[in-house]
């Protein structure tokens, strides 16, 4: 006799096990869940091939820990940071000027901060004063705007704020203008904000990553900015030096003391000098 289905008399009726009395194990060829999976999800999902355990969407309220790597199967995810000086360690023009690689395009104050920081020695402090303040970096070059047309990019950054709904980050393109992240909660902690945007497939000329304080005068801090190709955000890593680049060094000793500015394929870096 074939095994019969176990079916409740009415929809949404009955349970298998209880919160206090659990079944030890279960084996299923296929499992479809009409509602949600609650509680702790521990153990192994799937095997060694995608067909053994694949998801369209996997969401969780807690941490999801992987014992292997998470790889984008469509070949569009690249964890390389596109931003120069995303950790705001370089301020060759001075502590109250633009951080290297970034531009300031509004009223207010931007300055180097050494106390409230998430990574390294410094963070970027933005103080809104009468109008929204933005610090940005344009990223269309060196690959050119044509390369980025139709591609998806993700900007992430650590943000610290004491007032809710004022500090956030955004991606700009000349067709859609600004696409925004959520605002910081204003709870005096570092929060990692992200925004993902698919760029237009034609007529693209400008692409920018923006750090901003909007609407009301207040102060926020930014550190560890990371812009990558693909729809997934990554923990901060510095933009790598290009291989085989053309190097020119500034030799005017009046422009530096213990470090030499070095331009590599249009990007400014510094060579630190030591007595040894």
Q: Give the C-level CATH assignment of the domain at 103-229.
A: Mainly Beta
Major sheet characteristics: 5 strands, antiparallel
What's the mean pLDDT score?
A: 82
User: Do you know the CATH architecture of the domain at 103-229?
Assistant: Sandwich
The amount of helix comes to: under 10%
Following the backbone from N to C, one meets helices and strands in this order, namely EEEEHEEEEEEEEE
Question: Helix and strand layout, with pairings?
Answer:
Blueprint: E1 103-104, E2 109-113, E3 123-127, E4 133-138, H1 145-148, E5 152-161, E6 167-173, E7 177-180, E8 190-198, E9 207-213, E10 219-229, E11 247-249, E12 259-264, E13 267-272
Antiparallel strand pairs: 1-4, 2-3, 3-10, 4-9, 5-8, 5-10, 6-7, 6-9, 11-12, 12-13
Short description:
The chain is an all-beta fold. The chain has one helix spanning 145-148; strands spanning 103-104, 109-113, 123-127, 133-138, 152-161, 167-173, 177-180, 190-198, 207-213, 219-229, 247-249, 259-264, 267-272.
């Amino acid at each position: 006799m074939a095994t019969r289905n176990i079916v409740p008399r009415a929809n949404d009726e009955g349970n298998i096990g209880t919160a206090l009395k659990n079944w030890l194990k279960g084996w299923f060829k296929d499992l479809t869940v009409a509602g949600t999976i609650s509680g702790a999800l521990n153990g192994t999902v799937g095997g060694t091939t995608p067909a053994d355990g694949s998801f369209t969407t996997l969401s969780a309220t807690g941490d999801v820990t992987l014992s292997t790597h998470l790889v984008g199967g469509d070949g569009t995810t690249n964890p390389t940071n596109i931003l120069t000086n995303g950790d705001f360690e370089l301020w060759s023009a001075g502590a109250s000027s633009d951080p290297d690689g970034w531009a300031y395009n509004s009223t207010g104050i931007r300055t180097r901060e050494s106390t409230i920081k998430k990574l390294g020695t410094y963070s970027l402090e933005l103080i809104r004063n009468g109008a929204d303040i933005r610090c940005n970096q344009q990223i269309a070059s060196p690959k050119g705007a044509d390369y980025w047309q139709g591609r998806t990019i993700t900007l992430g950054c650590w943000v610290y704020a004491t007032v809710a709904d004022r500090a956030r980050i955004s991606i700009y393109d000349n067709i859609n203008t600004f696409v925004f992240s959520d605002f910081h909660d204003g709870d005096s902690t570092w929060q990692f904000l992200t925004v993902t945007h698919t760029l237009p497939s034609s007529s693209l000329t400008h692409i920018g990553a923006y750090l901003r304080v909007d609407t009301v005068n207040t102060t926020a801090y930014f550190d560890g900015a990371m812009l990558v190709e693909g729809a997934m955000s990554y923990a901060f890593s510095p933009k790598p030096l290009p291989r085989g680049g053309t190097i020119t060094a500034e030799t005017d000793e009046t422009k530096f003391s213990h470090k030499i500015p070095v331009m590599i394929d249009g990007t400014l870096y510094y060579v630190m000098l030591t007595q040894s």
